Amino acid sequence: MPEIADLPERFLKRHEDWHMANHDIQAPGFGVGLLDFHRDLVADVLAWMRDTGHDVSTVQPWAAIPNELTADQTFSPRRKEAVRRITQRAYTFRDLDDFGLFLTSDTRSANLHLWFHDVTMAVYQDPLVRPFATSPKSTYFYNFHGLIQNWRLAVERSLVSPRPVDWEQLLAGERLYDNDVITATITPNAMTPGPNGETAVDFVLTSTLWWGKWLNVPDGEGTGANWTISTGAPWFGGRKTVDSVALWSHQVRNGQLLTFSKAKGLGVAWPVYQLGGLESLQPNSRVTLTWVED
Q1: End-to-end CA distance of the chain
Q2: To which H or E segment does residue 33 belong?
Q3: Other C-beta atoms lying within 10 Å of the C-beta of residue 1
Q4: If we measure between CA atoms, which residue out of 158, 34, 22 comes closest to residue 86?
Q5: Of 36, 47, 57, 271, which is least packed with CB atoms within 10 Å of its CB?
């Protein structure tokens, strides 16, 4: 059984006391609190281990969840999908609290955090790793909390403006980090080819919201050519609810990003989201992007 020898009682009590005082695992603020507490506890224990000559090689973060754990029958489809979101779509979390709450949510991740404690206890036959009062004695505690810390860092790196979004979010109509809902509808063969067989992809921005919304569409050909379509009520001119621009079909394969902006302080356009993956769009399709809520 992998156990840290002579771990001071103060670390065990600190862990147990925090969990006893923070038992509402879906309360606002719990998520970032969970992440911060375990980051600091792990850092302090590792510092103590180094100072006292303990071998720290056994408490390093896992690079990924070990195969023997993902092979366990408790690694359900919901947990598998949760790990996919964390490792491939870290930018979809609204903030660190959302990420921490995700880890402890039964409905969103099947409580991935608790699963780590349960599955390591079962697969590695380690009774220390499950109870609050003893889990910091187990080296596995540091392996998976180190992995969670690295996941956290990936989420933090995505917390920039404009935030990345993906087609999966827009097609599902998910609420985005700045409380927006933008939906995407892709209509194939919505445009008629030109007289010489030319094909294009049409981008339509639509919204009934009052404040200005903008979508910048670059051609990605290196010349800086781009077009901005808009809806809402600008400072001058009439209110629009729909606007559009098209690119030639070959231009959507240039790796460029669409940039969504919205009016914030003093009505100034503020870039909030960027969307890539245009190469998946088929010739003569129409993409309707509807800004539903802000």
Answers
A1: 52
A2: helix 30-51
A3: 12
A4: 158
A5: 57
How do residues 215-232 score in pLDDT, each as one tens digit?
Answer: 999 999 988 899 999 999
Q: In one letter, which amino acid is 269? A: A
Which 8-state DSSP code applies to residue 162?
S
Is pLDDT of 239 > 90? no
Give the position of tokens 């080819």: 193
User: Taking the model in full, what pTM does it have?
Assistant: 0.85
pLDDT of residue 131: 95
- Residues 259-264: what's their mean pLDDT? 93
Nearest alpha carbon to residue 125 among 249, 1, 266:
1
Is the pLDDT confidence value at 1 over 70? no
d(CA 80, CA 266): 44
Distance (Å, rounded) from C-alpha 196 to C-alpha 291? 35
Q: What's the rounded Cα separation, in Å, for the pair 155 and 94?
A: 9
What's the DSSP call for residue 119?
H
Could you tell me the two tokens for 171? 């097609």
Q: Which residue has the tokens 């059984």?
A: 1
Strands of the chain (E only): list them. 163-165, 181-187, 200-206, 213-218, 226-231, 242-248, 258-263, 269-275, 286-293
What are the structure tokens assigned to 262, written together?
Answer: 């919205």
Decide: 202 and 257 in contact? Cβ < 8 Å. no
